[in-house]
UniProtKB/TrEMBL annotation:
InterPro entries: LysR_HTH_N, LysR_subst-bd, WH-like_DNA-bd_sf, WH_DNA-bd_sf
Organism, as annotated: Methylorubrum extorquens DSM 13060
Keyword annotations from UniProtKB, A to Z: DNA-binding, Transcription, Transcription regulation
Family, similarity comment: Belongs to the LysR transcriptional regulatory family.
Name this polypeptide is given: Transcriptional regulator, LysR family
Length: 289
């Protein structure tokens, strides 16, 4: 088992380029810094630091350790904060973070709780961060079981077809599954789970959809649809402003309940003292946002 203090000392040596400067940074004597690095090298049975007149550099083994060492220190700080119960880190997938998270954070702040740290990333990256203990709660657009993690649906967000106001469907109240057969769609962030929802809800029609362009984000999709480059299917909350301003038209699909289940995932069990418990309570009450 690696000693976190020794790991932190190694990082200081590599960041400052010298044992003396690392000691000043950490408030340690130079012999103590040398001892920490030597003990870490002994534990790993490799040399981690090269010394030359230009300063200290990592060996190949030291470079290989570096990202893991940084992650260990982050995890150690998160563990201290979790025990103290004085910090909350939330991760949200792209659409949730952009279109739903601001209102959720406002409502959480209204409870008098200290502000939460928030980040937006992909589902896959957030799950990795959650498993590593670097975030407390992940708000996800799809869920696959992970050992040590649990998730529950906190909201079902309707999906709508969006077209520009000049499109032939723009004057319709809705579209039919037949209208969408073999449709060519503009897609946003890959891996958001929308395709899975469409296949499950629309069967063969959903399976027939083709992605004409993968644009990387819902914002890019909305601009492309407004420019008349195609149609898309998005979360209704993501186009509320554009529909209200008349620059996009949102259409439900007749006879189909198109909605995406949104999940809140966390480690299992969740400590009784965790601030995440209070956030989850607010989250389930904020589904109207």
């Amino acid at each position: 088992m690696l000693n976190l203090q020794y790991v932190e000392t190694l990082l200081a040596v590599l960041a400052t380029g010298s044992f003396h400067a690392a000691g000043r940074r950490l408030g340690l004597s130079q012999p103590t810094v040398s001892q920490h690095v030597r003990k870490l090298e002994t534990a790993l049975r490799v040399t981690l630091v090269e010394r030359d007149p230009a300063g200290c550099r990592p060996t190949p083994q030291g470079r290989a350790l570096l990202p893991h060492a940084e992650a260990l220190i982050r995890a150690g700080r998160r563990a201290e904060e979790a025990v103290a119960g004085n910090r909350l880190a939330i991760g949200a997938s792209g659409n949730i973070g952009t279109f739903l998270m601001p209102e959720i954070l406002r409502r959480y702040g209204d409870t008098g709780a200290a502000p939460a740290d928030a980040e937006i990333s992909t589902n896959t990256h957030l799950l990795a961060r959650l498993e590593a203990g670097e975030i407390d709660v992940a708000l996800l657009e799809w869920w696959e079981g992970r050992s040590g993690l649990v998730a529950r649906v906190w909201h079902r967000e309707p999906l709508v077809v969006i077209v520009d106001p000049s499109h032939r469907w723009a004057r319709q109240a809705r579209v039919t599954p037949q209208d969408l057969t073999n449709a060519s769609l503009l897609a946003g962030e890959p891996g958001s789970g929308t395709g899975r929802v469409l296949r499950e809800a629309l069967g063969a029609v959903g399976a027939s959809f083709r992605v004409d362009r993968q644009l990387g984000s819902t914002e890019a999709v909305k601009r492309a649809v407004r420019a008349g480059l195609g149609i898309s299917i998005v979360m209704a909350c993501s186009v509320r402003d554009e529909v209200g301003n008349g620059v996009l038209v949102a259409l439900p699909v007749e006879g189909a309940e198109l909605a995406k289940s949104l999940y809140a995932a966390h480690r299992d069990p969740l400590p009784d003292t965790a601030r995440a418990s209070g956030f989850l309570h607010v989250l389930t009450a904020a589904v109207g946002c």
